[in-house]
Design goal:
The protein is built from 14 helices and 16 strands. With 481 residues, the protein is an alpha/beta fold. It folds into two domains: 179 residues, YjeF N-terminal domain (Rossmann fold, 3-Layer(aba) Sandwich), CATH 3.40.50.10260; 263 residues, Ribokinase (UDP-N-acetylmuramoyl-L-alanine:D-glutamate ligase). A nine-stranded mixed sheet has the order 10-9-8-11-12-13-14-15-16. Strands 3-2-1-4-5-6-7 form a seven-stranded parallel sheet, covered by helices on one side.
């Protein structure tokens, strides 16, 4: 089994969606979860109450009830909020108690299936009512995570069975388990191979446009490159624009800018440099003016002039709070991972070797940064490495995407996502997925003669290839009644 990292509640939902897209039977996964709970209950004193909330955590509880010879089920709501958990409820033929009609015999053990890892903050509404109504001091087995974990109002479990990976809301700032978790069992539920890799579930990371937004609300990206080459920064800018960012500026030396064919969606950021990049003082000032820029892409087409390398180092040092993609020749300016660099570095194999020698050095390079430092070793398969065991492999797409310019597109794609507010980890995963999908879409329509210029419109189409973005998610309070 591949290693797992400590996952956020949102990431669990993303990976569940990846698993479903890969053909996982979600009902079977729920049954497997319940089997792990049943095993963890072996020897627990009776009577056993199973407390079921309205979501999939409650569905686990109903599946568990069908596996036990004797138990009492108490539900907070009249029906479940998801079809998956409602099917589990419908399969339970026993009595369903409520907070108004609790079982007559008090529990010796309760199974906490009220709220799973996708929740946060203090319990409220019907969830809190039921928690406060539990008589005595029964033992608690938590499903996935104790309800209210870390909020100050929670069950204290003797044991927690969590699925596939530890969750970020069951650990403190130092990564230590919170005391209410008790003994932690990490149980596999049967995610298919490839679930941890970028996939359609990663579309859930994408921020939806709002009806009340104005120009600039969805970010400004600055692409810095060019000199020997003028097409690369244009390609990166086109990809960034197709991510739905509001404004994309491209800065390149004047001679390269004069050769470039400027699409209407890109804004030329004029530089005093003529042949190659050396003076970035005006760009630093631009980053600090008005609403500034929300992301930068540095390197496409830049060349490796020593003055340009020094300019890259100055940009990183002078703008530490702006997330960046460091691509192409700009990687040569890096010595290890520079202090203050937040973002993604995208070397191909040779660039990686020249930079740090071996891919095995990457985990130490990004250690302790949570979602803030990511390396993508680009190639026929993109290898994504983040901190704390985070990882993924980009596969599939179109072999024609090995052509020149696709690295620039990937850098711009990730830069655009950073500009929208995604973390480097989230932007790297989603960017890799979108590039693979766009390559396939473009290849299917255009054929093997497609060129890098053909791909950006398909990046935009790739954003609507999954069901996630077709219907914007409702914003619901998971603790509401």
């Amino acid at each position: 089994m591949r290693p797992r990292w400590i996952m956020s509640p949102r990431e669990i939902a993303i990976l569940d969606a990846n698993a479903e897209a890969l053909g996982a039977d979600m009902d079977e996964l729920m049954v497997t979860s319940a089997e792990h709970l049943a095993n963890a209950l072996e020897g627990a004193p009776k009577p056993i109450w199973i407390l079921c909330g309205p979501g999939n955590n409650g569905g686990d509880g109903f599946r568990l009830a069908n596996m036990l010879e004797e138990c009492h089920v108490v539900a907070t709501h009249d029906k479940q909020k998801t079809q998956l958990s409602q099917r589990a409820r419908d399969d339970w033929n026993g009595v369903i108690h409520s907070v108004e009609s609790l079982p007559e015999v008090p529990p010796s053990t309760i199974v906490d299936c009220l709220l799973g890892a996708g929740t946060y903050g203090q319990p409220r509404g019907e969830i809190l009512r039921l928690m406060e109504a539990i008589p005595g001091r029964p033992m608690v087995l938590a499903c996935d995570m104790p309800t209210g974990c870390g909020s100050g109002i929670s069950f204290n479990a003797f044991r927690t069975v969590t699925f596939e990976a530890p969750k970020s809301n069951m650990v403190d700032s130092k990564g230590q388990l919170l005391p209410e978790v008790g003994d932690l069992f990490i149980a596999p539920v049967g995610w298919p191979a490839g679930t941890l890799d970028p996939g359609p579930g990663d579309l859930m990371r994408y921020p939806h446009p709002r009806e009340d937004q104005i120009k600039g609300d969805r970010g400004r990206v600055l692409i810095i490159g060019g000199g020997p080459y003028h097409g690369a920064p244009i390609l990166a800018g086109m990809a960034a624009a197709r991510m739905g960012v509001d404004l994309v500026h491209v800065a390149m030396p004047s001679q390269a800018a004069a050769r470039a064919k400027w699409p209407s969606e890109l804004i030329q950021e004029k530089m005093t440099d003529g042949e190659y990049i050396s003076d970035v003082s005006s760009l630093v000032k631009r980053c600090m003016t008005g609403r500034g820029v929300q992301a930068m892409v540095i390197g496409p087409g830049m060349g490796d002039n020593q003055a340009s390398m020094e300019a890259v180092r100055m940009l990183i040092q002078a703008t530490p709070n702006i997330p960046k993609v460091i691509d192409a020749d700009a990687i040569k300016a890096l010595e290890g991972w520079p202090e203050g660099l937040l973002g993604v570095v995208t070397p191909h194999q040779k660039e990686l070797e020249n930079w740090i020698g071996n891919i095995d050095a990457v985990p130490d390079l990004v250690a302790g940064s949570k979602e803030g430092r990511v390396v993508i070793r680009t190639g026929a398969e993109d290898i994504i490495i983040g901190a704390g065991g985070r990882g993924g492999i980009g596969k599939g797409g179109n072999p024609r995407m090995s052509m020149g310019g696709t690295g620039d597109l990937l850098a711009g794609c990730i830069g655009g996502l950073l500009g929208l507010g995604l973390s480097p980890w989230g932007a790297a995963r989603l960017g890799v997925h979108l590039m693979r999908v766009a390559g396939k879409l473009a290849g299917d329509e255009i054929g093997p003669g497609m060129v890098a210029d053909d791909v950006p419109p398909y990046l935009s189409r790739a954003l609507i290839t999954g069901p996630v973005l077709l219907h914007p998610p409702k914003v619901e309070d998971p603790f509401s009644s």
